[in-house]
Amino acid sequence: MQAALEEITAGHDDVVLGDLDLQLIASWMHIDRQLPGGGTAAQRYAARWDLHPDEGDIAARIAAARLGLLRVLRVMPGRWIDLHDLAGGDDVVRVISHDVSRSARPGAVLIGRLMDGPPAPSLWGPVGFLDRDDGRELAGLLKSYGDSLGLREQPAGLAAAMHAASREITLMLAPALHPSRRRQAA
Fold it and tell me: At residue 183, what are phi and psi to the nearest 5 degrees?
């Protein structure tokens, strides 16, 4: 974990990490960052033989919760959000969300992790709403990754680029690690 923290905060020695920064970094560390020898911390934990079946099920669902680019379609504040995963086809997913649904507005685009139920799909971990500048920055980042990995013409190319760029997306969303977000917070 120390190596992952040093990896993502390299060059940011003068910043103080806030709660949101730490949540974003912890999500990346556990779900996206590949460990030496393969797998992520969440995948390795979910594969433990000594877990109670219920705990193993939850751990596997957390390990599978990948970053998604999600458009808000409908909202019931305090209850749920209907989301379209822009990298995952035409399906609409209704997620249970007591907190995020209070801030979400139809048409908004967010970066978050969809986690399968039970009882229903939900958002796992921190969520970032994109403004126009964030959207342009993310589009450039994903185009670069898509081009370099040869993913542009593949149906799942956007999802693969999001996963490959998870570290940079985390840096983009973390206020203490992204210069424009630091200015907004000051």
Answer: -65, -40
What is the model's pLDDT at position 182?
Answer: 46
Q: What is the mean pLDDT of residues 50-56?
A: 96
Q: What is the DSSP string of 73-110?
A: EEEETTTEEEEEETTS-S-EEEEE-SSGGGT--TT-EE
Average pLDDT on 130-151 reads 86
- Bridge-based pairing state of the strands 80-85 and 92-96: antiparallel
Contact of 8 with 25, CB cutoff 8 Å: yes
Residue 99 has pLDDT above 80, yes or no: yes
∠ CA 32-74-133 to the nearest 5 degrees?
Answer: 55
pTM: 0.86
Compute CA distances 141 → 12, 15, 118, 148, whole Å: 20, 24, 33, 11
Task: For residues 75 and 65, give the distance between their C-alpha atoms in angstroms, rounded to a whole number.
Answer: 21
Question: Tokens in use for 96?
Answer: 């249970």
Q: Distance between alpha carbon 168 and the CA centroid of its chain, in Å?
A: 11
Beta strand ranges found along the chain (DSSP E): 67-76, 80-85, 92-96, 109-115, 122-129
